[in-house]
Amino acid sequence: MIESIPMVNSAEVITKIDKGFSRDQKYILDYKYLLRIYPIDEIDKRKVEFETLKKLAEISNLIPKPIEFGKGYMILTYLPGEDGEEALRSLTKQEQYIAGLSAGRELRKLHQLDAPQGYPSWYKVKKEKSDNYLNELKKLDLDQGLCSLLQHYIKDNEPIMKDRPNKFQHDDFHPSNLLIYQKKFSGIIDFQRMDWGDPIHDLQKLGFFSVQVSIPFTNGIVDGYSKEKPTQAFWELYTLYCAMHVVSALVWGKKMGSEQFDLLYNHSLSVIDDHDHFSKLIPSWYEKQQI
């Protein structure tokens, strides 16, 4: 297929990217462009992604800019850098924190984009998904105390989602999708899971995947996103979404096999421990830092 794409034929250097969990085939063209070959059954969804990237590119210079969309493929600008999961290990704690600050600030910029007019309310959409996951959780062979803890915390606190804004969501915001170049944050990538809803929901994976890589980086994201000290309302929503993410991760992990489940189960226990079984809102890893 790629031979029929003009920009591919004119490229002098084509490099295949094998890393990542996406169904896309990815190629770098002349170190300037990224070609994504996507499954044809996703064409409508990917067209929405492409058009949304056009709008986001007016807000941010640190995302891939859309160049060309075709049946089964899209071409974006290529952002240089190494994914944070790898690159952060070689940075000092101060450099990690500063990179996180920049990433949090950039995410907040993207959250300026409103959902399409007439999009269903966040509370309705998220509550329906959460209820489905909680029903699936009951079917798993898990400690009933753990299941009860999650069930009660979520049901007791889900009303705070009412009247939350419907904004752009990256929906996969964690170090593997954040780039570091020359020891600085250089971009956000992989928008194929994008959605619409409460922007704070985009931070739900911090305690799961970001803390495991770098606590200073994760602190920086929170501080950069919040501008000032995170508010009580911020932590209430953040912790609720963490609990919901634990549930969805356990359900999804069980379907993916024992190895994936064990990994997600251990991450889930860490999140629950960070919040002292959800008796406290602010996770134990968070500390306001000075630079």
TrEMBL record:
<dbReference type="GO" id="GO:0016740">
    <property type="term" value="F:transferase activity"/>
</dbReference>
<dbReference type="InterPro" id="IPR002575">
    <property type="entry name" value="Aminoglycoside_PTrfase"/>
</dbReference>
<keyword id="KW-0808">Transferase</keyword>
<dbReference type="InterPro" id="IPR011009">
    <property type="entry name" value="Kinase-like_dom_sf"/>
</dbReference>
<feature type="domain" description="Aminoglycoside phosphotransferase">
    <location>
        <begin position="14"/>
        <end position="226"/>
    </location>
</feature>
<dbReference type="Pfam" id="PF01636">
    <property type="entry name" value="APH"/>
</dbReference>
<protein>
    <submittedName>
        <fullName>Phosphotransferase</fullName>
    </submittedName>
</protein>
